[in-house]
Design a protein that fits this description.
Layout lengths: L2 E7 L7 H11 L5 E7 L6 H7 L3 E6 L13 E2 L1 H6 L4 E6 L4 E6 L2 H6 L10 E4 L3 H12 L4 E5 L7 E3 L5 H6 L2 E4 L25 E4 L8 H8 L3 E3 L2 H18 L1
């Protein structure tokens, strides 16, 4: 019996997931397991995909659907419910229905990906599903954070224009959870006032392609510690893999 898994989102040109999961399946002798990209232009295309692919038993979820997928789920684990975003879905099928259960492996992947000690507060750039997971993880680590967006139209969210030297000096951990700077738009960085960044700061970019983003380059220029999202990507994928292997 074939066991298929995959990634939904749009676009997916940057994705590293197929090579990772295919390698993991091969190393375990699971030659009947496969992993594919499913670029969905709209989330409504999910249900036709599930009907078209009866061997599909699990999917990873990336931008822009980590929150948009929630109405399609039958259940979520406790962590995903609290975060309000999902990046892994297990698909259980019976003659009567297709049941979707959502999980969030981003939060644990993020919290295990770096040493955040010494940072008392954080600025989280972005308000999407990845941002929710990062905020959850930081709160669990005892690091309060403030989210930042272009519009700042949600509660407790600052705009980039509101950031001043006092705020940035007091928030030494700065995490980019937006897709700004992702391949192929590698020269773009979020509209952050980088001139206020110092060697005391840690600039963490969830983007992993390119390896060194424009956001990170701005930090390097000012002597800040920087990190890409590749380690987090590996860690959250490892957790998703365990979920897939239990159902496949």
């Amino acid at each position: 019996m074939k066991n298929s898994f995959g990634l939904i989102g749009y676009p997916l040109d940057h994705s590293w997931s197929p090579s990772y999961f295919q390698q993991q399946f091969k190393s375990r002798g699971l030659h009947h397991f496969s992993y594919d990209l499913f670029p969905l232009r709209i989330i409504d295309d999910l249900l036709p995909l599930l009907k078209e692919k009866p061997d599909l038993h699990g999917i990873n979820v990336t931008i822009p659907y980590k929150e948009a997928i929630l109405p399609y789920l039958n259940d979520m684990d406790a962590t995903a419910k609290e975060i309000g975003a999902v990046n892994t879905v297990l698909i259980r099928r019976s003659p009567e229905q297709i049941k979707l259960t959502g999980y969030n492996t981003d939060a644990e992947g993020f919290s295990r990906s770096a040493d955040f000690s010494g940072h008392r507060s954080a600025l989280v750039l972005g308000t999407g599903g990845a941002s929710r997971a990062v905020v959850y993880a930081l709160n669990a680590l005892g690091i309060p954070c403030t989210r930042v967006s272009r519009s700042g139209d949600q509660g407790n969210v600052l705009t980039y224009h509101e950031l001043d030297e006092q705020i940035i000096s007091g928030h030494t951990l700065i995490i980019n959870t937006t897709p700004v700077g992702m391949f192929p738009n590698e020269e773009i960085a979020p509209p952050f006032p980088f001139d206020m960044v110092s060697s005391r700061h840690f600039l963490y970019d969830l983007i992993y392609n390119p390896e060194i983003t424009a956001f990170m380059k701005q930090g390097i220029k000012r002597g800040a510690r920087v990190q890409s999202g590749i380690k987090m990507l590996h860690l959250q994928a490892d957790i998703a893999l365990k979920l897939f292997l239990n159902i496949g």
